[in-house]
């Protein structure tokens, strides 16, 4: 009994944390992601000019449909023509494209007057299947608006819909979306934490001050980055044939992103390790960045599920940029010229923490 009493006295904070943290986590996730997907960008090309009807004036089915779409869930982006919309869709600027054809309203009224009339106009929906979560939300919202208007105005649903999909990623599977995200999230967490652990361990076990601090810093960062790079390459070398993943672009584009991401991950791990006196203090920062990246990196949980005021936080996580480069280059055949913003930001993050790590390590070893 005395042992049990001592146990509770020494570990009461841990016990309280184990009891409270799950509730706080559920509450936190509910507040952040509990509102569902919001403001998903959907491009609209409206070629329908409507129809002038006596006693009714100008009538446009396409305009009525757009007004009936839930503006909290769908953010309408007006697009000039279909080719421009498909390009925006390919680059990830919009998550779906809706094209209202010319003469749609006129043909719908002809169909109402003569049920045997064969309509040629079709509402065309193209959507980005690599955005697995938001795609189903978009389709549900659009279908509800389409058929709601048809039933309200005509008592039926004479709206033919053509689900067009872009050929370059029409065969996208869940693995194409999921595996690059998992690699970005968990490789960062593993590499950064292990890098911090290795350096802190060697800092106390080895007499590092005997050596040139710049050479020591370069060796740790570049060698661990190279090992991390080989690990990521090995993962994708197995995953691509095993899960039949797409590889539309040159392998050198994701490979370059792998190496930059490896340097960023190692540097983010080593920098706090140079400032910490123990292992737990060293791994705290990279572990925090890694765990928060799972929730806020727009990698597995969609950014559209966050409140709009929280969405800018996505852009501070290196996992966001690495996953985007992996996915968009492998699935959509986008090159460096298309992804130069993501590459630039990833390089800046890697360079900043690389310099911080070298400078901090040099001060640490020179002061010993």
Q: What would your notes on this structure say?
A:
The chain is α/β, with parallel strands linked by helices and 368 residues long. The protein folds into two domains: 40-169, 3-Layer(aba) Sandwich (abc type-2 transporter like fold), CATH 3.40.1710; 174-366, no CATH class. Helix content is 62%, strand content 9%. It contains eleven helices and seven strands. A five-stranded mixed sheet has the order 4-1-5-6-7. Strand 2 (51-53) and strand 3 form a beta hairpin. Helix 7 (213-242) packs antiparallel against helix 11. The longest helix has 32 residues, at 2-33. The model is unreliable at 164-170 (pLDDT under 50).
Q: In terms of topology, how is this protein built?
A:
Elements: H1 2-33, E1 40-46, E2 51-53, E3 57-59, H2 61-68, E4 74-78, H3 82-90, E5 96-100, H4 104-113, E6 123-127, H5 132-154, E7 161-164, H6 174-205, H7 213-242, H8 252-275, H9 279-296, H10 318-332, H11 340-366
Helix pairs in contact: 2-5, 6-7, 6-8, 6-9, 6-10, 7-8, 7-11, 8-9, 8-10, 8-11, 10-11
Q: How would a textbook summarize the main sheet?
A: 5 strands, mixed
**C-alpha end-to-end distance:** 48 Å
Global morphology: elongated
Question: What strand order characterises the main sheet?
Answer: 4-1-5-6-7
- What is the strand content? 5-15%
Q: Give the averaged pLDDT, no decimals.
A: 77
Which oligomeric form is depicted? single chain
Low-confidence stretches are 164-170
Q: Would you tell me the structural class of the helices and strands?
A: alpha/beta
Tell me how many strands there are. Answer: 7
Fraction in helix: 55-70%
| H and E string | HEEEHEHEHEHEHHHHHH
Domain count: the total is 2
How many helical stretches?
11
Computed Rg: 27 Å
């Amino acid at each position: 009994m005395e042992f049990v009493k001592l146990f509770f006295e020494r570990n009461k904070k841990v016990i309280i944390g184990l009891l409270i943290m799950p509730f706080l986590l559920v509450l936190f996730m509910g507040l952040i992601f509990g509102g569902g997907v919001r403001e998903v960008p959907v491009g609209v090309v409206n070629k329908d000019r409507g129809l002038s009807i006596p006693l009714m004036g100008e009538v446009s089915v396409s305009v009525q449909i757009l007004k009936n779409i839930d503006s909290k869930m769908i953010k309408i982006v007006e697009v000039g023509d279909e080719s421009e919309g498909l390009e925006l869709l390919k680059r990830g600027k919009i998550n779906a494209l809706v094209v209202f054809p010319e003469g749609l309203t006129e043909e719908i009224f002809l169909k109402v007057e003569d049920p045997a009339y064969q309509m040629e106009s079709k509402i065309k929906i193209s959507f980005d299947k690599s955005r697995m979560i938001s795609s189903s939300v978009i389709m549900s919202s659009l279908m509800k608006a389409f058929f709601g208007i048809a039933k309200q105005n005509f008592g039926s649903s004479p709206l033919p819909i053509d689900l067009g999909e872009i050929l370059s990623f029409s065969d996208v599977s869940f693995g194409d979306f999921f595996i690059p995200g998992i690699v970005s999230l968990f490789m960062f967490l593993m590499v950064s934490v292990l890098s911090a652990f290795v350096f802190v361990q060697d800092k106390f076990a080895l007499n590092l001050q005997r050596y040139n601090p710049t050479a020591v810093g370069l060796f740790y960062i570049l060698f661990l980055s190279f090992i991390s790079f080989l690990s990521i390459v090995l993962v994708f070398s197995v995953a691509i044939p095993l899960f039949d993943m797409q590889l539309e672009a040159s392998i050198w584009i994701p490979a370059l992103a792998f190496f930059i991401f490896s340097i960023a991950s190692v540097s983010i791990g080593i920098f706090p390790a140079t400032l910490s006196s123990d292992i737990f203090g060293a791994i705290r920062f990279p572990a925090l960045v890694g765990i928060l990246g799972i929730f806020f990196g727009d990698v597995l949980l969609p950014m559209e599920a966050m409140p709009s005021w929280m969405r800018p936080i996505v852009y501070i996580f290196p996992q966001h940029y690495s996953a985007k480069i992996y996915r968009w280059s492998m699935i959509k055949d986008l090159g460096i010229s298309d992804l130069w913003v993501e590459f630039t930001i990833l390089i800046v993050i890697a360079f900043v923490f690389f310099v911080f790590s070298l400078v901090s390590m040099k001060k640490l070893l020179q002061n010993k």
